[in-house]
Design brief:
It is built from five helices and 25 strands. By secondary structure, the chain is an alpha+beta fold. Helix 2 packs antiparallel against helix 3. The longest helix has about 30 residues.
Length: about 375
């Protein structure tokens, strides 16, 4: 192995000397950097073997605040018509059944008229059947005539039931239909009512607008609970479990992280993003958490045994993590390592170190500064 060593000769024997040695197992262009130091600097270092330690990792995933889909109602008209009055505004709290808007509909008026006509025919044929039964008892008409009248009554009853079903489709309740039976008053006014208690978060209608049953006019949501949704990479999805307690940090809101359980972990991987969707339910009684806010979901993992190094032993150089490993009594190697993200005092080693190797755990920063200073000189 080619060994090129540059030695700086001075009168001070404690000045370290660095050397670059080509590693035959390294990729072309890579070099193993070593440092030789004098005993005076060696006494300032603390060297310990690489050991295993219990590491509790925290997984961090970008997240977003969303509406609770189970508590959202998108409300529209049940019949084609023109908006004649609007009773709700954005941000208004409404109860279930509250009137949001009113529209006039000729279609509804025609449906009511058809129902009343069918009802009139039912009443007429019912009287005819009753009269036919009395005549049959008096032996004025035969049984066949009564059966014809009863068959005609069944036909008109079917027509009335179909007309009543049409009214229900157009938004009328059974009570409304009973009132129509009693009063026979035809009004072409149809109310648009809230189907959920909550807050009006969207309104897409103006006075005089012609609307269709397919149009969403109001969106009402219960904001007392919201969802925080994150996308977990598929290679880490096995670490996430439904019901697990997690934390959420919302940069827009100061204070401690919000805690809560995961209520949903997707059973399939998104083929486009290669992620698994997870969802957390968050109580929001004071409405401080707004849908569409950005957040970070923190999932704390149980502690397990791994190779670890102290955080102060890590040296950052050329956008990579390195540590100093003792290879001779006064000679150290600046070795690149791969470390797990996170960690405060101790960091888990993914690659680059073996158990028992002598590691500079205190003084690595000063040792690296001397290496850089010597290299410049």
């Amino acid at each position: 192995m080619l060994n090129i060593r540059v030695v700086l000769m001075t009168s001070c024997l404690c000045l370290p000397v660095w050397a670059a040695e080509t590693d035959p197992l390294a990729t072309p262009g890579s070099e193993a950097v070593t440092v030789e130091i004098a005993p005076a600097l060696l006494r300032q270092l603390r060297i310990e073997p690489v050991r295993e330690g219990e590491v509790s990792e925290t997984l961090r995933f970008p997240a977003r605040v969303e509406l609770n889909d189970h508590q959202v109602a998108r409300i529209g008209a049940t019949v084609t018509g023109r908006i004649s009055a609007i009773n709700a505004v954005l941000g208004q709290s409404v109860e279930k059944g509250a009137l949001l808007a009113t529209l006039h509909s000729t279609e509804l008026g025609e449906a009511k008229a058809d129902y009343l006509k069918a009802l009139s025919q039912v009443n007429l044929h019912r009287l005819a059947v009753e009269r036919g039964r009395r005549l049959l008892e008096a032996d004025v008409i035969g049984t066949a005539e009564v059966l014809v009248r009863e068959s005609e009554l069944v036909e008109v009853q079917i027509g009335m039931n179909a007309a009543a079903d049409r009214l229900r489709v157009l938004g009328m309740s059974n009570t409304d239909i009973q009132n129509l039976d009693r009063t026979h008053n035809i009004h072409s006014v149809s109310p648009i009512s809230a189907t959920l208690a909550g807050t009006v978060i969207a309104r897409a209608v103006t006075l005089g607008q012609v609307v269709q049953p397919a149009d969403t006019l109001f969106t009402v949501a219960d904001l007392s609970h919201v969802w925080v949704v994150a996308e977990v990479p598929e290679k880490e999805a096995w670490l996430v479990r439904k019901g697990e307690e997690v934390e959420v940090e919302i940069p827009a809101l100061p204070g401690a992280p919000v805690r809560g359980p995961l209520i949903y972990v997707a059973d399939v991987v998104n083929p486009e993003t290669r992620t698994v969707t997870v969802r957390m339910d968050v109580a929001n009684p004071d409405r401080r958490i707004k849908p569409a806010m950005l957040a970070t979901m923190l999932i704390h993992q149980e502690g397990s045994q791994h190779l670890v190094v102290p955080a102060e032993a890590v040296v950052r150089d050329n956008d990579r993590d390195h540590v100093f490993v003792q290879i001779e009594p006064q000679r150290f190697e600046l070795r690149p390592v791969e470390l797990a993200p996170g960690g405060d005092e101790r960091v888990r080693v993914l690659q680059g170190l073996k158990r028992g190797e002598p590691l500079v755990v205190d003084g690595a920063f000063h040792l690296n500064n001397e290496r850089l200073r010597t290299a410049l000189e």
